[in-house]
Give the backbone structure.
Amino acid sequence: MEVSFSNKYEYYTYEEFLKLQKEETRFKIEYDNGFIFSMAPAHPNHDRVKNKIATAFINHLGVDGMYEVFTSDIAVVFENQNEIYEFQPDIIACCNPKLFHGPKYKGIPRLIVEILSYSTEHRDTEQSNCLCMRNFKYLSTG
């Protein structure tokens, strides 16, 4: 179950989020261009599905060593001149280890997978579609 960390209209800077992220260890939080969301623990079925999908990607993409596949707890940071997002997708596949800054991948992974649940489906699909469309535009136009 997803719980909004802030009131619907309260804005946080990314710097405030980073400070709060260091202080708050009870639950994962994500940054959505000014808004902070706390994430509830995953249901065991969620993890089962994630592990099966991740294993398939590891077996397929990781064979030649070109791609690495990661599950959870790796934050992806999307940033441009006007927006910044930091979230922890269920699965990412990437091929550029230079974009890792500690546990954060600052760039666009080759693949992002979100396992949807009833409680997070709306936000996950809305955020993913929005970010993918924007970043596809950035990739394709240079």
Summary: The chain is about 35% helix and 25% strand.
